[in-house]
Amino acid sequence: MTDVCRGSTGTDEPRHDSTSDRRDGDPPTVTVGLLSDEFDIANDGPGLDIDPGQAIACSVSTRDDGTGFGLAIVTEIAAAHGWEMRIVNDDGTRVEFRGTD
Known about the structure:
There is one protein chain. This protein is 23% helix and 22% strand. The chain has a 4-stranded antiparallel β-sheet with strand order 1-2-4-3. The protein has helices at residues 2-9, 52-55, 70-80; strands spanning 30-34, 38-43, 84-88, 93-98. It has a single domain, classed as Histidine kinase-like ATPase, C-terminal domain (Heat Shock Protein 90, 2-Layer Sandwich), CATH 3.30.565. A hairpin with a 4-residue loop joins strand 3 and strand 4 (93-98). By secondary structure, it is α+β, with helices and mostly antiparallel strands. The relative contact order is 0.21. The protein has 3 helices and 4 strands, in the order αββααββ. The longest helix has 11 residues, at 70-80. The protein is globular and about 35 Å long.
């Protein structure tokens, strides 16, 4: 899940602030939502510039220096746990995990 959080900020460095007011040029704010049988990791950034279905394919990256392994690995981990994973690309990007009870 660390990979999803770091990938959503566009950097490999973790972000440790809790500011809710994002100015242009600031890294996106990452939030985690929890329900009884699901959770999601979301950001308020510009969103993916490719189809979410493409984003989970191995070796596909939107970054010049990216490997394209991140979301592909996350997809495999979710499947190994029996979770359903969905990417929503609306007002930022949200990765939802269902069936986590």
